[in-house]
TrEMBL record:
Residues 98-107 have a biased composition (Polar residues). SUPFAM superfamilies: Glycoside hydrolase/deacetylase (SSF88713). GO terms for molecular function: hydrolase activity, acting on carbon-nitrogen (but not peptide) bonds; metal ion binding. GO terms for biological process: carbohydrate metabolic process. This is NodB homology domain-containing protein. One of its GO terms (cellular component) is membrane.
Length: 322
């Protein structure tokens, strides 16, 4: 994805923050390519996230072609007569994705079935007696393909809290991820702070993401995993999402949303895991789809494995809690 965006072209990016907005274009000092400008704006956006809801607008000649192209992909999926694109997937894992390749094979793992009370109980980490931590990757604006390729290469499963709007932009990524047995959680459609929305808008944000995923891969759901944007929620939000069959999954280890460099973050993540109480096992790690995290993920995965800890998907983690 980033490579497609690095092609030079006139573009304007604007970040609306409340009533004001910040604009970047590539024909000023914002540098040669779009990917850099996007990551800077997203870093800015994440920094201001707690204060006000922000929306990122991309005005770029590729926008139209990207979505048209992505749309084209779905239609061109090798679908046998009468079969949905998902049908093309259910022809079983490709040769390179045999069970041996993926010890934490998500498709064999049932998603947790939680009762009403549990759905209303947000969770930051769990207590388990197995050396596992949950690896979660959020948002999905940048480098989704590269991140997926890295995880496949490292034989590491994870749960993707990709925004509905980014699922829509990346149907190829979604199909490839599902084919490699990765799972998706719900992080709303447009990353708006849910405490600032009415119940019907909260529901709409979640349902739209489910709809988009179902359009790309019929039968696939984000339930029961939900993550509130910015980690911001209140009892009304928890109640509303629980009614839709979702539990709010937060985290106890994070750090890449701030201004720390990839190098600084390497030690940061592993030291937080080491310090997690009562044990590192059962921790939930938050990261984001972005170039900086792409550089750090490999080191963190290796560091965890050196500690005898395996990073896994939320389904795998919650199944370990018995
Ligand atoms: Zn997010």
């Amino acid at each position: 994805m980033a490579e497609r965006f690095s092609r030079r072209g006139l573009f304007k990016l604007s970040l609306a923050v409340g009533a004001s907005s910040v604009v970047a274009t590539n024909d000023t000092s914002d540098g040669p390519n779009l990917a850099e400008a996007v990551s800077r704006l997203i870093a800015k956006r994440q920094a201001v996230e707690e204060e006000v809801s922000a929306t990122l607008f991309l005005e770029h000649p590729f926008q139209e072609s990207v979505s048209r192209e992505a749309q084209g992909f779905v239609e061109e999926a090798p679908v046998t007569q009468g079969q949905s694109p998902q049908g093309a997937l259910d022809q079983g894992p490709g040769p390179e994705n045999s069970d041996a390749t993926f010890p934490n094979n998500n498709s064999k793992i049932e998603r947790p079935k939680w009762d009403e009370a549990t759905l209303r109980n947000p969770v930051r980490r769990i207590i388990i007696d197995q050396p596992l931590v949950g690896l979660t990757i959020d948002d999905g604006y940048l480098v989704p393909d590269e991140t997926l390729d890295l995880l496949i290469e490292k034989k590491t499963s994870a749960t993707f809290f990709m925004l509905g709007s980014n699922l829509q932009r990346n149907p190829y990524f979604v199909l490839k991820a599902l084919d490699a047995r990765y799972e998706f959680g719900n992080h709303t459609f447009s990353h708006r702070l849910l405490t600032t929305l009415g119940n019907s808008d909260v529901e709409r944000e979640i349902k739209r993401t489910e709809e988009v995923l179902g359009q790309i891969a019929p039968g696939v759901t984000t339930q029961p995993f939900f993550r509130p944007p910015g980690g911001v929620y209140d009892s009304r939000v928890i109640e509303t999402v629980a009614k839709l069959g979702f539990r709010s999954i937060l985290w106890n280890v994070s750090g890449d949303a701030g201004s720390m460099t990839a190098e600084q973050l390497n030690g940061h993540y592993l030291s937080l895991v080491d310090a997690a109480k009562p044990s590192p096992w059962g921790s939930i790690i938050l990261t984001h789809f972005q170039p900086k995290t792409l550089r750090l993920l490999s080191t963190v995965i290796d560091g965890l494995r050196k500690r005898g800890i395996e990073p896994v998907s939320l389904s795998r983690l919650f199944n370990a809690s018995g």
